[in-house]
Design a protein that fits this description.
- It is a single chain.
- The protein folds into 2 domains: 133 residues, Immunoglobulin-like (Sandwich), CATH 2.60.40; 129 residues, no CATH class.
- It is built from 6 helices and 12 strands.
- The strands form 3 sheets. The chain has a 5-stranded antiparallel β-sheet, with no helix packed on it. The protein has a 5-stranded antiparallel β-sheet with strand order 3-4-11-7-8, with no helix packed on it. A two-stranded antiparallel ribbon has the order 6-12.
- The chain is globular and about 80 Å long.
- The relative contact order is 0.13.
Length: 263
């Protein structure tokens, strides 16, 4: 556990998104964090290929994700949390490394991210800013808290769907950006409450299971155009509306009719 180092806690009701413009080798890269903690400052050491994040948290249980452009820093990562070696889960595609953070300790913490590759695939003689990555890919905070680990099959399924399906299309990216703006406004609170209340955690698990099962359909279809993304997306949305709203409403109406007939 880490000792709290400040007196004013951050709100535990807000998912914090930080976009850090890191200057390196004449380029500007956007490193994004989505978490229930804040980033007060950062610094990058080009010689050591080390990015240091200064974390400020008002919560004991910290969850978040760092989105690291692979053109900036990649390879075999080494991590240090408060100068002690740390092993977060790391996934990546051809553009971004997704570093999932899960640690305890409110107050001030320091995370060092050290890569082996720096400015990979870039022409270092041209000094132009790198365009910002448009997708906002945050961590599955609620699913991680519900199923116990970011390595749980259900959580991996959601990540794979997001990274390999939705964010490969323009309409899917627009949907995820809009969804994340809403999702990270309440998900840290729910995730924290799940860890404190096992009964609530089981209730969330029961509620999420049908939705995750329906989303698994998308892993078996080709979403290679905007039309197919919109079509399958609308179909899955309709299916979930039916499961979560229409079917319960029909059941309530029928039970009400049966009750009136008995009276």
């Amino acid at each position: 556990m880490f000792t709290p180092a400040f007196a004013v806690p951050l709100s535990d009701k807000t998912g914090l998104v930080n976009r850090l413009d890191v200057k390196a080798g004449g380029y500007v890269f956007e490193v994004e964090t989505v978490a229930n903690f804040d980033i007060s400052d950062f610094k990058f050491n080009e010689e050591q290929k080390r990015l240091t994040l200064y974390i400020v948290s008002g919560l004991e249980n910290n969850l978040g994700e760092v989105l690291m452009p692979r053109e900036f820093l990649s390879g075999n990562f080494t991590f240090y949390l408060n100068d002690q070696q740390y092993s977060p889960n790391v996934r990546f595609n051809d553009r971004i490394s997704f570093i999932t953070l899960n640690f305890t300790g409110s107050g001030d913490n320091k995370l060092d991210i050290i890569g082996t590759d720096y400015l990979k695939k870039l022409n270092e003689t041209s000094i132009v800013p790198i365009q910002k990555e448009t997708p906002t890919k945050g961590g599955c905070l609620i699913a991680t808290a519900t199923f116990g680990s970011e390595l749980a099959p259900q959580v991996q399924q959601l990540r794979e769907l997001r990274d390999s399906k939705l964010l490969e299309s323009e309409s899917g990216t627009l949907f995820m950006n809009s969804f994340n703006a809403l999702y990270y406004s309440f998900s840290p609170t729910i995730a924290d409450y799940e860890r404190e209340n096992p009964v609530f955690k089981e209730a969330v698990k029961i509620a999420l299971t049908p939705m995750i099962s329906s989303l698994s359909i998308l892993n078996y279809v080709n979403m290679d155009s905007e039309v197919t993304v919109l079509g399958y997306g609308a179909g899955i949305l309709a299916l979930n509306l039916g499961m979560y709203f229409v079917a319960p409403a029909v059941l309530v109406v029928r039970l009400n009719k049966l009750r009136k007939q008995k009276e």
